[in-house]
C-alpha cells in the first residue's frame, strides 16, 4: 500500500463541552492519569518546540517533571540547543502525543527559568548516574565518538567518588507558563473534537470548540 493510503478511523470516543474541567490544568491532570492507567509508554514524554534567533524552529522530546496551575516543568542543560533558543525567544510549544488513546494536548506558552533552589531539589532526586551524566555531557555540542562520551563519564564518576554530586551551574529547568492549551480527541470521518482554553480578561480560562 502506498504511504498516501495509510489511514485508519479514530473510534475510541469523543470529547464534549460537558466533559471539560474548568481549567486546562485540571483537564490535563485527568487525561494524564488516564494515559498512565492505560499503560501508555512514556506518558510524560512531550515534544518541545523552540525557535532560534534566525526563525528556525526545532523540536525534541523531553520529559514532563511536574505541573500545576503555574505551568509545565522540565529540566535540561542550560547551554543546550533548546536553552539557547529560549534565551532569544521564550515562546515555546509543547505537544503530548498520546496516539494509542487518539488524543493530543498542545500547550502554547512562555518558558521561564526555574530558581536554583528548585533545580537543586530536583537534581538530588535524580538517579546518581543521571546526576553524573549532567556533568559529563556538553549537550548539543559535537563529540568525536561514543568512546569519548564514555571516557568523560568515567572521569566525572571518579572525580566525585561516593560523595554528594553538586548541581552544575550549567544545569537547571524551565516552567512553561501556558497561554493557550488545546485538547484533541480523534473522531470518525476525520471529524475530530478540539477544544482550546484561552485566558479571559479576568485571568481565568475560557474553553472554545475548534473546527477539526
Automatic annotation (TrEMBL):
Q: Which cofactor does it need?
A: FMN
Pyridoxamine 5'-phosphate oxidase N-terminal domain span: 33-158
Q: Which residues bind substrate?
A: 65, 122, 126, 130, 190-192
Task: Report keywords, A-Z.
Answer: Flavoprotein, FMN, Oxidoreductase, Pyridoxine biosynthesis
* Pathway in which this enzyme or protein is active: Cofactor metabolism; pyridoxal 5'-phosphate salvage; pyridoxal 5'-phosphate from pyridoxine 5'-phosphate: step 1/1; Cofactor metabolism; pyridoxal 5'-phosphate salvage; pyridoxal 5'-phosphate from pyridoxamine 5'-phosphate: step 1/1
Query: Cofactor comment in the record?
Result: Binds 1 FMN per subunit.
What's its catalytic activity? Answer: pyridoxamine 5'-phosphate + O2 + H2O = pyridoxal 5'-phosphate + H2O2 + NH4(+); pyridoxine 5'-phosphate + O2 = pyridoxal 5'-phosphate + H2O2
Q: Where are the transmembrane segments?
A: none
> Per UniProt, what is one Pfam family of this protein?
PNPOx_N
Task: Report the EC number(s), separated by commas if there are several.
Answer: 1.4.3.5
**Ranges of residues in domain Pyridoxine 5'-phosphate oxidase dimerisation C-terminal:** 171-212
Which HAMAP family does the record cross-reference, listed alphabetically? Answer: PdxH
Quaternary structure and interacting proteins, as annotated: Homodimer.
- Job description of the protein: Catalyzes the oxidation of either pyridoxine 5'-phosphate (PNP) or pyridoxamine 5'-phosphate (PMP) into pyridoxal 5'-phosphate (PLP).
State the name under which the record lists this protein. Answer: Pyridoxine/pyridoxamine 5'-phosphate oxidase
Which species is listed as the source? Microbulbifer halophilus
Amino acid at each position: 500500500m502506498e504511504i498516501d493510503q495509510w489511514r485508519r478511523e479514530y473510534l475510541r470516543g469523543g470529547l464534549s463541552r460537558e466533559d471539560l474541567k474548568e481549567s486546562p490544568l485540571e483537564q490535563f491532570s485527568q487525561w494524564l492519569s488516564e494515559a498512565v492507567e492505560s499503560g501508555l509508554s512514556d506518558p510524560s514524554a512531550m515534544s518541545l518546540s523552540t525557535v532560534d534567533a534566525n526563525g528556525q524552529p526545532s523540536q525534541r522530546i523531553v520529559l514532563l517533571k511536574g505541573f500545576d496551575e503555574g505551568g509545565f516543568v522540565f529540566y535540561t542543560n542550560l547551554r543546550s540547543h533548546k536553552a539557547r533558543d529560549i534565551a532569544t525567544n521564550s515562546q515555546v510549544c509543547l505537544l503530548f502525543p498520546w496516539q494509542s488513546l487518539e488524543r493530543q494536548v498542545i500547550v502554547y506558552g512562555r518558558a521561564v527559568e526555574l530558581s536554583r533552589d528548585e533545580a537543586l531539589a530536583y537534581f538530588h532526586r535524580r538517579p546518581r548516574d543521571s546526576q553524573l551524566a549532567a556533568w559529563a555531557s556538553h549537550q548539543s555540542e559535537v563529540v568525536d565518538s561514543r568512546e569519548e562520551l564514555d571516557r568523560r563519564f568515567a572521569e566525572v564518576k571518579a572525580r566525585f567518588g561516593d560523595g554528594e554530586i553538586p548541581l552544575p551551574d550549567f544545569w537547571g529547568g524551565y516552567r512553561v507558563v501556558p497561554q493557550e492549551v488545546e485538547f484533541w480527541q480523534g473522531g470518525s470521518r476525520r471529524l475530530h473534537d478540539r477544544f482550546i482554553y484561552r485566558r479571559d480578561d479576568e485571568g481565568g480560562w475560557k474553553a472554545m470548540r475548534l473546527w477539526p
